[in-house]
Amino acid sequence: MKFKVHSTLEYQVLQPSTFILNIHALRTPTQTVLEESLVVDPEIRVEEFSSGPGANRFVRLEITEPVTFKIAYQATVEPVTQVIDLTPGMEPTPIMQLDASVLSYLNPSRYAQSDKLQRLASSKFDKYPGAFEKVLAITDWIYENVEYLSGSTNSQTSAYDTVSERAGVCRDFAHLGIALCRALSIPTRYFTAYAFKLNPPDFHACFEAYIGGNWLIFDATKLAPLNGLVKIANGRDAADVAVASIFGNVNCQNMRVGCETLEENFEPFYYNPNTLKALAY
Amino acid sequence: MKFKVHSTLEYQVLQPSTFILNIHALRTPTQTVLEESLVVDPEIRVEEFSSGPGANRFVRLEITEPVTFKIAYQATVEPVTQVIDLTPGMEPTPIMQLDASVLSYLNPSRYAQSDKLQRLASSKFDKYPGAFEKVLAITDWIYENVEYLSGSTNSQTSAYDTVSERAGVCRDFAHLGIALCRALSIPTRYFTAYAFKLNPPDFHACFEAYIGGNWLIFDATKLAPLNGLVKIANGRDAADVAVASIFGNVNCQNMRVGCETLEENFEPFYYNPNTLKALAY
Amino acid sequence: MKFKVHSTLEYQVLQPSTFILNIHALRTPTQTVLEESLVVDPEIRVEEFSSGPGANRFVRLEITEPVTFKIAYQATVEPVTQVIDLTPGMEPTPIMQLDASVLSYLNPSRYAQSDKLQRLASSKFDKYPGAFEKVLAITDWIYENVEYLSGSTNSQTSAYDTVSERAGVCRDFAHLGIALCRALSIPTRYFTAYAFKLNPPDFHACFEAYIGGNWLIFDATKLAPLNGLVKIANGRDAADVAVASIFGNVNCQNMRVGCETLEENFEPFYYNPNTLKALAY
Amino acid sequence: MKFKVHSTLEYQVLQPSTFILNIHALRTPTQTVLEESLVVDPEIRVEEFSSGPGANRFVRLEITEPVTFKIAYQATVEPVTQVIDLTPGMEPTPIMQLDASVLSYLNPSRYAQSDKLQRLASSKFDKYPGAFEKVLAITDWIYENVEYLSGSTNSQTSAYDTVSERAGVCRDFAHLGIALCRALSIPTRYFTAYAFKLNPPDFHACFEAYIGGNWLIFDATKLAPLNGLVKIANGRDAADVAVASIFGNVNCQNMRVGCETLEENFEPFYYNPNTLKALAY
Q1: Engineered SS bond to B251: which of A11, A72, B12, D157, CB 3.0-4.6 Å?
Q2: B108 and C155: CB-CB below 8 Å?
Q3: Which domain of life is it from (chains A, B, C, D) (predicted)?
Q4: Do D138 and D178 lie in a common domain?
Q5: A273, pLDDT greater than 90
């Protein structure tokens, strides 16, 4: 399935500032970037670099004097998702069998304090028979118990806050999902994306859980079809893969994000607890 | 029903220190203290005073040099409880009709941050038809979702912590109950007591909610019969009515607490959601 | 010194709502309300009542259907302040000598978690010789270390947040001052006021510390002269004496507050660490 | 300089459990492990693996039935430290020039919430002329303002707590140092070690800051000479490189740690603000 994605960010820079942006579609064996462009207006030199486990793609630019500028990314991307048939009651992968590269996704992180939510996670989700069922129950629980409310949280909000305050945006839903999964010893990573049919359009965040040898996608917001995502980055949480990290004094003036499909036969895919069919990117 | 209550506290004082203790049974129109005594060994002058809305009874003593001392209280107390027949679906008293002295029990307090738990409280308990049903559902929810675990919390633990960490002792159960009720605009106050059949024996804490013109007793720990309490104090939370407030450098060496009934026909009373019979002290 | 004070609050009520407002000038032996009026437009029945230790004056009104209304208070008030000459190095009043009505102002409260700031308070302020010097050092420390920044905090922000985040408004400055004083066993209470020369005009909050038998006024914001205050209320913290407590669904549309002196010879009074002259209301 | 290091951990396993331990001395171009051994008693199969940016060395073992076991590591290690002469007032490396592998050490992490301490860090440390001076001032500030107090914190304690509560152990001192440095845009990483002359003997934690192209070592506890460390691991904070991560039900029965030098001419090295000589491992 091919998607056309784009994002435009406009900033007013008040003092010399450095930007690190993470808005490029990720290139992976299962996601091909067919074409892309990045335009900065007025023209400013931009450095692209990769970092982190999945070689997330960042750009870095330095603004030395006050200016208002716009940075526009667009791409045509073809992610190939795989439908995984799961067997009921499949246990989480034993810690002893997890690859070293996966183990760190069990650790608590800035916005996903799994160490503080052990008892909650166990009492609510131990009863589900397998790893997939547990994570599905976690996303359902978040969906039912946390209100999606724009503006209710900020960049300092973490899973520990959300579990009490019960409101947030996609970032908060993802962090809470991650924290609860890790508390059950299921490795989980943050996933940022362009999302088809997301309304209102914005950057999206959800998460992947490591089950049966695959990183399966989960989205507690249920705001976009699971097969409508174009991956930007993976990280332990939003601290690793913020859309924009800004060092300086800057106002964000405007942000527009979009994701459309280029084909007609898009069939939205959501999880169904009865079929045990999961999706991997 | 008459109860014999006693408590003995033993402290090692390392430096000059002042103690404020709140261990006397409260005298109220419905609770008679038939006899009582307070013994300090070695003899130290103790000042008794009353303070706060219900005239809670405190003692204050000053130790000017290092010593180990023991303070022992015992009393025979006769609380008279009243069984209140409620009608189903009775609304919380409208704010406009609450007496000024009751209104302050709607405010958030140190250990009961009702302002931070509004959304949680509404989403879980708005659906219950009346005030009594709501508070009963709150105590059941706490009982089912928070583990009673000695030593899991400390004097700084608050309802906001407990709602995430899901473990605590009677004090934490009471604070969470108070916070959730206030978040629903039901006035609620902290209630400390000697409790019959509490095991292991200790000072107990639960709470009263103001419903239909009465302060009804609730206990989310379900560790003692609701009619087996000898009230020590009411307050907004444990900050008002700590068993011991100590200014100085002191080790608590030992604490023994007990409560026995003097009659044979004690019939334990617990709430039953079907009968709508409540208890007021 | 006579002051003319006024405040106008305008609300859009979306659903049936109840308001409790605390905007009346307090009547005390040292503060005379010479004349006052309260006008609600459109006309809505308002109930005035007093509550709390200092008999704070509240009004309560209930709006049963959607409406936009305005409530305007104005008064001429004559507070008489007393200048207290202190002796250097005067100790805090021993706990044993504090009146029962004062003791509760040593307890931690919702927004002033003195129990969590003991070590900070001791390490920074134990070294100052007397109670007044300590509290003055606390206000100076807050003034120098916390940035006054409108909009940086909200109604859930507490002293524990402010000590780390280092920004806030008058309410936050007061809460931090209160928490640090109580951590040093100096009784302290929240003080809301109309403030002369406050810029921009708004309701003001500062605090009183109990020293040498008097409640002395302190203001860590240094935004208004200490003798330019018209007291509205005392409380343990903002939980007791919020300007507006609203139960319902309401937008605040507008708020105007003012305080002018009616005399010409106003001489602003601020503390001077060398003179040890303090002010009591 | 050669060191002999050893650690022995003894656990009582109550239920099937998996351990991940991080107690091996790290092998780096500047740290040679001359010999080492790991003994588990009773014999249990142990798997060694490397993970993370510096290839930290972990062992993993699975215990399938209740047992008490002991794991003992010992090694002879030769770290070569480099003394770096700094020029006064050297700026932090501009963000634009930081290698991608270093950038992630600017992000907030589980125990080092640099995003919440920006204002505090700026107000206290912006005034120091260069990056080294700033970090040195941070370590001095922590040393002076935080009390080293065994048992005052636990595995959930973070820099945000410590900045208010002002007590902790080496782990907490390191986390606070890391958070404050990152808040000033100085990359910083957690550093665990065997430490010569540490008293009482234990695993040690301090941190490295990236200044002038080198990772310089800093220790806010001042409990061990800076040149007396044998590096175990680097990570973003303790979440990455816990000495022991345990999945299961286990009691730690005993822990012994030691570090001795094998040479006689050990000259302890500490920083001196006047000489601007720093140390890199």
Answers
A1: B12
A2: no
A3: Bacteria
A4: yes
A5: no
Give the domain CATH number at B112: 3.10.620.30
Q: In this predicted complex, what is the ipTM? A: 0.95
Maximal CA-CA distance, chain A: 59
Q: Which residue of B has its CA nearest to C237?
A: B109
Whole domain around residue A69: which residue ranges?
A: 3-79+247-260
**What length does chain A have?**
281
A225 and A95 within one domain: yes
Chain centre distance of CA C6: 17
Tell me: do D103 and D198 sit in the same domain.
yes
Peptide bond into B108 cis (omega under 30): no
On whether both A143 and A189 belong to a single domain, the answer is yes
Report the percent of chain C where pLDDT is more than 70. 100
What average pLDDT score do residues D177-184 get?
Answer: 98
- The Cα–Cα gap between B205 and B202 comes to 10
Say whether both B185 and B119 belong to one domain: yes
Same domain for D166 and D100, yes or no, is yes
| Choice among A262-266, C8-12, D15-19 with the minimum mean pLDDT | A262-266
Mean pLDDT of B182-209: 97
C-chain residues near B104 (CB < 8 A): 51-52, 240
Q: Which residues of B touch C101 (CB under 8 A)?
A: 51
Q: Are the CB atoms for A20 and A250 separated by under 8 Å?
A: no
A190 lies in the same domain as A91: yes
Neighboring chain B residues of C243 at a CB cutoff of 8 Å:
none
pLDDT > 80? residue D154: yes
Distance CA D27, CA D6 (A): 16
Residue C120 pLDDT exceeds 90: yes
C44 touches chain B (CB under 8 A): no
Nearest to B109 by CA among C58, C118, C104, C112: C112
- Rounded Cα distance between B123 and B115, Å, is 14
| Reported confidence tier of residue B262, pLDDT bands at 50, 70, 90 | confident
What is the pLDDT confidence band of residue B52, given thresholds at 50, 70 and 90? confident
Q: What is the CATH number of the domain that holds D7?
A: 2.60.40.2250
Question: In the structure encoding, which two tokens stand for residue D145, read together?
Answer: 């303002």
Taking the C-alpha atoms of residue C86 and residue C276, their distance in angstroms, rounded to an integer, is: 5
Considering only CB atoms, which chain B residues are within 8 Å of A167?
119
**Is B242 contained in some domain?**
no
| B157 interfaces chain C, CB cutoff of 8 Å | no
Residue B46 within a domain: yes
Number of domains making up chain A:
2
In a domain, B265, yes or no: no
pLDDT (tens digit per residue) in C154-178: 999 999 999 999 999 999 999 999 9
The predicted-structure confidence for C8-60, as pLDDT tens digits, reads as follows 999 999 999 999 999 999 999 999 999 999 999 999 999 999 987 779 999 99
Contact with chain D for residue A235, Cβ under 8 A = no
Which subunits count as partners of chain D given 3+ CB pairs below 8 Å? Answer: A, C
Task: Based on the fold, state whether residues B213 and B120 are members of the same structural domain.
Answer: yes
